[in-house]
């Protein structure tokens, strides 16, 4: 499978930026991920991400680190932070940009160390893939937490992508699947990724899943477009 995400990051890092990553999803038409955005500074980050970085404490694992922008910010603030990503190209860019501790693995395959803060930004909970996987995903996160540790994650309620009727209800396909489940493909310079599953979890669904899996779930702030930052801690 082509590491299209990693290719795009490497091209940008090495001065070969000529186009953005195209995304194709089961929900809407073609969209793009602007590659420069993945290299954003703290000042360029949305408020939700800034707040998450302010709340980070102790030893940090940045899950799905991408180009390492969050990890770099925390490292420069003196944190012991590890950037984890399943993309070889992303990890190469993290190292190139100066991230000192990196791991090339999928989060579900990682169990080597425990942390005070797990960061799952840019809708990181989406890595669970489907709603039915959320319990197992939360259990795995719990296994990576030190005593009194926290998970900081953002996600979105994508209900706004469905048509609304006159009385305010939404037309959601009645096929038994959760409306936040999306299938994606990425394309960059003519190369396509394999399709992959991603899940956007609304806050109520997340809180219910946390309740069932031994976590407290606190809504920290809501963003400007159906997005939010949540803080998860293990129940005592």
UniProtKB/TrEMBL annotation:
Query: Does this UniProt record's set of keywords contain Methyltransferase?
Result: yes
Q: Where are the transmembrane segments?
A: none
| One GO biological process term | methylation
Q: Which Pfam families match?
A: Methyltransf_23 (PF13489)
**SUPFAM superfamilies attached to this UniProt entry:** S-adenosyl-L-methionine-dependent methyltransferases (SSF53335)
Q: Which UniProt keywords apply?
A: Methyltransferase, Transferase
**An example Gene Ontology molecular-function term:** methyltransferase activity
- The domain of life is Bacteria
- Name of the molecule in the record: Class I SAM-dependent methyltransferase
Q: What is the lineage of its organism?
A: Bacteria, Pseudomonadati, Bacteroidota, Flavobacteriia, Flavobacteriales
């Amino acid at each position: 499978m082509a590491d299209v995400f990693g290719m795009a990051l490497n091209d940008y890092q090495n001065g070969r930026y000529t186009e953005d990553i195209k995304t194709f999803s089961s929900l809407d038409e073609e969209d793009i991920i602007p590659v420069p955005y993945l290299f954003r500074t703290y000042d360029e980050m949305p408020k939700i991400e800034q707040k998450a970085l302010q709340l980070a404490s102790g030893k940090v694992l940045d899950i799905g680190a991408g180009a390492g922008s969050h990890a770099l910010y925390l490292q420069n603030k003196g944190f012991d932070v590890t950037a984890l990503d399943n993309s070889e190209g992303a990890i190469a860019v993290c190292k190139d940009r100066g991230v000192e501790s990196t791991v090339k693995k999928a989060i579900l395959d990682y169990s080597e160390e425990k942390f005070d803060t797990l960061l799952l930004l840019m809708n990181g909970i989406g890595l669970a893939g489907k709603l039915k996987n959320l319990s197992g995903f939360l259990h795995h996160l719990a296994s990576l937490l030190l005593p009194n540790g926290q998970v900081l994650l953002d996600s979105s309620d994508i209900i706004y992508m469905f048509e609304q009727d006159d009385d305010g209800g939404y037309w959601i396909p009645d096929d038994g699947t959760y409306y936040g489940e999306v299938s994606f493909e990425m394309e960059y310079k003519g190369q396509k990724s394999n399709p992959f599953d991603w899940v956007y979890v609304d806050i109520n669904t997340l809180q219910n899943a946390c309740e069932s899996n031994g976590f407290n779930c606190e809504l920290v702030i809501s963003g400007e477009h159906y997005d939010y930052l949540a803080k998860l801690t293990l129940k005592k």
